[in-house]
Backbone:
């Protein structure tokens, strides 16, 4: 256990080496929050309800999705496929520590760094926009936390899956780009996904995308009843198990091919 | 002068030709990029149309006018990424020493850094998205006149002067701070604020977006001119800002080159 | 008296690097507070190089070799001092100057990775404004000299390191530069390929009377290509002259290798010089240069010697000696 704590400390520090990049990343996140908050605040000056959301709910949605961006979607594993392809990952394979455990620690450190900043940013945004944020019931709050943790686990597994492309090819930008675009529209700050036409919304529920933060925000906002919450958490759990099995299988194949290629 | 122009045009053509070949080599990746961009445009338009249907005014503009601001943003950003895609890789080129090969060549390194990697995807995308944009424009209720189209076209030149200046500033920053990734994405996110009329933002931001990172001069004002709406600042202020930014960016670039440390070996 | 092609006087180049504080809090602190340290990569170096000369820059990692080359190429702006190459100030990057020299970096790659090398050649043809005739003639000569006719149309990423390096050289030499800077041109190549490249560089020097500066980790590169060596350490020039002179002034010892008819003990051998290696029937001894001949005849008369050779130590050892001597001096 101590080695994992040591690792966490090290990963935390490592992220600060690229301080300017980190600052810029956070500033960009801040800008997009400001844009969404401004646009919706302006829209609500002339009417009280748009597309089924009142102002309080919409503004809370934006604050929540900005926060979940740091908790669920922030990841240190964007370059994992490159590290796999270059063989850098071999250095981890020979150490007496689980590879997935090692990567998970890196990911957690990255999330902690991002949460550290999002808390500062949120306070700033709060001072600028002075929103009313309705708090959820205790039960919903607990379920929200659970759903956030599960979302983070699912995102971690999906990142491992992307990383595995590196076993066979250096080109991972195409699929990654598609993924980011989809995340931008399904878990983004600009609008909640249920303002989309119902047919599109239904289609999206066949993918993991709503579980990257939309479902979590709906639990927090109390827009789902307990039966709906149960089914959403169940399908999120289903995605985690399914994706984990696929990922494990692919990594096993990948590592085998990897050793064979002698990289 | 004419000789210099044809020399640089010839070289730019070769870069474009090479970039095109690379697209064919990496066709899978490029197909995904292309579809991704398309999905993004389609989704953004869809959401804008949804908002348009559900609201009547936005920061003093009609919902139709709001769409025009977005389309002008889309147009300017699309063209700049066709020509200046090379800027996105510049940080990497500086870090891995690729730029060391460009500097000793008898060609302006700034030209190489800005225009060395034309984006073929975006060229194709441009044709399609322009068609879609024109169609959408034709469905909106606007007062566009021949004179306003002419004025808009002329002011677009100023927009590209600003785009160029901002890209040169990004390149210079990449030289100053080699360990920083993606300054260009910062620019992109700032430009994205121009999807909506800059006048909608809070006072301090509005000022910054007109005078510090002049996205407003680049997108909002030409769009206002096109629609015969009152301008936030006069055309002359806009042109003055454009010119001074270009001057500033070139000055910064020269300083950056003097401070270039080259990748360590 | 030939005019120097390259002249460098009192050149310095300093860099700032930042020091990271250790520890968890240190990393948060480094967000707003950073300490910088000045590194003198090149520190007051002067030299002149004449047309057609081949110079080897020798030095340990970080000694300042590459930095000097980069200043000469106009990549880096000198912190102090004057530099002139072919009568130009490299920093001004005038096209007339740039069309007359080339920089080749062994660890880096200017060829378009996803395309065949010929595309990069065509691009450089346009950049250097070569006529079709010149281009074809030079390309054919280079392709023939380097024997790469069959790879010109293969994607660069699929070439072997050796093939790629040869194509890199072609890309750099298409405009037949009069001055050529080679930074580690043979790094990572196998012995045969190293030799092929060396032979080519020598040929190029003779054919075009080109001035060549080379940095390399492989002493053989320097030994075979260069008639003059410039040793740099900690940004300063510590030797400039013929390679032979370097050997004479720094090689204190010669190596005697012996083969015996009967076993000889190490203890016995130690009376003649420093024993570097020995088994029963053979040995290698280090003896001071001045006494080498005397010792040899002494050995021949006193021990059952079947065969004896007097050799110069390998150049790596001499260079190590140079740096050690230098270090001792600075310690004193």
Residues:
């Amino acid at each position: 256990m101590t080695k994992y704590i040591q690792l966490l400390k090290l990963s935390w520090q490592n992220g600060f080496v690229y301080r300017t990049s980190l600052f810029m990343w956070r500033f960009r996140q801040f800008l997009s929050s400001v844009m969404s908050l401004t646009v919706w605040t302006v829209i609500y000056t002339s009417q009280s309800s748009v597309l089924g959301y009142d102002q309080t709910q919409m503004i809370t949605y934006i604050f929540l999705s900005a926060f979940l961006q740091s908790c669920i979607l922030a990841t240190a594993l964007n370059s994992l496929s490159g590290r796999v392809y270059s063989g850098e990952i071999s250095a981890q394979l020979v150490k007496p520590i689980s590879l997935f455990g090692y990567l998970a620690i890196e990911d957690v450190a990255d999330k902690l760094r991002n949460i550290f900043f999002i808390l500062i940013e949120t306070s700033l945004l709060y001072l600028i926009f002075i929103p009313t944020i309705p708090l959820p019931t205790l039960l919903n709050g607990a379920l929200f936390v659970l759903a956030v943790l599960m979302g983070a686990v699912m995102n971690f597994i999906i990142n491992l899956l992307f990383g595995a492309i590196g076993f066979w090819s250096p080109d991972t930008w195409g699929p990654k780009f598609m993924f980011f675009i989809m995340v931008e529209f399904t878990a983004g700050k600009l609008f909640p996904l249920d303002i989309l036409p119902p047919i599109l919304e239904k289609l999206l529920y066949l993918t993991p995308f709503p579980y990257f933060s939309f479902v979590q925000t709906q639990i927090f906002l109390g827009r789902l009843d307990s039966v709906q919450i149960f089914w959403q958490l169940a399908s999120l759990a289903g995605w985690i198990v399914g994706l984990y099995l696929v990922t494990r299988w692919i990594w096993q194949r990948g590592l085998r091919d990897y050793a064979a290629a002698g990289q | 002068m004419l000789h210099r122009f044809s020399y640089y045009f010839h070289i730019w053509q070769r870069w474009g030709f090479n970039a095109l070949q690379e697209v064919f080599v990496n066709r899978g990746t490029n197909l995904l990029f292309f579809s991704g961009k398309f999905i993004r445009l389609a989704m953004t338009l869809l959401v804008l149309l949804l908002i348009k249907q559900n609201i009547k005014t936005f920061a003093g503009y009609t919902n139709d006018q709001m769409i025009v601001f977005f389309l002008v943003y889309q147009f300017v950003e699309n063209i700049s990424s066709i020509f200046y895609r090379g800027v996105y890789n510049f940080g990497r080129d500086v870090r891995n020493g690729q730029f060391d090969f460009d500097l000793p060549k008898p060609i302006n390194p700034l030209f190489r850094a800005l225009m060395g990697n034309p984006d073929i995807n975006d060229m194709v995308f441009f044709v399609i998205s322009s068609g879609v944009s024109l169609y959408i424009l034709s469905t909106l209720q606007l007062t566009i006149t021949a004179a306003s189209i002419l004025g808009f076209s002329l002011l677009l030149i100023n927009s590209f002067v600003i785009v160029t200046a901002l890209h040169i500033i990004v390149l210079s920053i990449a030289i100053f701070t080699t360990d920083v990734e993606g300054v260009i994405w910062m620019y992109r996110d700032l430009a994205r604020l121009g999807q909506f009329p800059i006048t909608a933002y809070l006072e301090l931001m509005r000022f910054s977006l007109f005078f510090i990172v002049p996205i407003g001069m680049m997108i909002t004002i030409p769009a206002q001119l096109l629609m015969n709406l009152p301008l936030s600042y006069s055309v002359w202020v806009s042109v003055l800002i454009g010119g001074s930014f270009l001057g500033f960016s070139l000055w910064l670039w020269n300083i950056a080159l003097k401070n270039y440390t080259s990748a360590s070996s | 008296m030939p005019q120097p092609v390259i002249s460098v006087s009192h050149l310095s180049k300093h860099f700032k690097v930042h020091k990271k504080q250790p520890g968890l809090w240190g990393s948060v602190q480094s967000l707003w507070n950073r300490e910088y340290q000045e590194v003198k990569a090149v520190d007051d170096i002067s030299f002149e190089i004449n047309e057609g000369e081949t110079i080897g820059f020798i030095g340990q990692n970080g000694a300042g070799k590459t930095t000097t080359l980069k200043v000469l190429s106009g990549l880096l702006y000198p912190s102090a001092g004057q530099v002139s190459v072919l009568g130009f100030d490299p920093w001004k990057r005038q096209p007339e100057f740039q069309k007359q020299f080339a920089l080749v970096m062994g660890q880096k790659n200017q060829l378009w990775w996803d395309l065949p090398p010929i595309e990069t050649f065509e691009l450089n043809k346009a950049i250097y404004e070569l006529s079709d005739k010149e281009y074809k003639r030079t390309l054919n000569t280079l392709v023939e000299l380097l024997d790469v006719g069959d790879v010109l149309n293969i994607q660069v990423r699929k070439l072997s390191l050796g093939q790629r390096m040869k194509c890199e050289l072609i890309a750099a030499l298409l405009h037949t530069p009069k001055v050529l800077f080679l930074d580690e041109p043979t790094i990572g190549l196998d012995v045969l390929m190293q030799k092929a490249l060396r032979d080519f560089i020598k040929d190029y020097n003779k054919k075009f009377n080109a001035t060549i500066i080379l940095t390399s980790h492989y002493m053989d590169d320097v030994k075979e290509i260069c008639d003059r060596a410039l040793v740099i350490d900690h940004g300063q020039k510590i030797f400039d002259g013929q390679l032979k002179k370097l050997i004479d002034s720094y090689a204190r010892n010669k190596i005697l290798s012996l083969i015996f008819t009967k076993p000889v003990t190490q203890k016995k051998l130690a009376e003649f010089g420093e024993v570097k290696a020995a088994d029963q029937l053979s040995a290698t001894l280090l003896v001071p240069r001045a006494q080498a001949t005397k010792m040899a005849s002494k050995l021949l008369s006193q021990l059952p010697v079947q065969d004896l050779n007097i050799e110069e130590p390998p150049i790596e050892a001499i260079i190590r000696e140079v740096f050690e001597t230098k270090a001792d001096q600075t310690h004193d």
Q: What stands out?
A: Chain B has twelve helices and two strands.
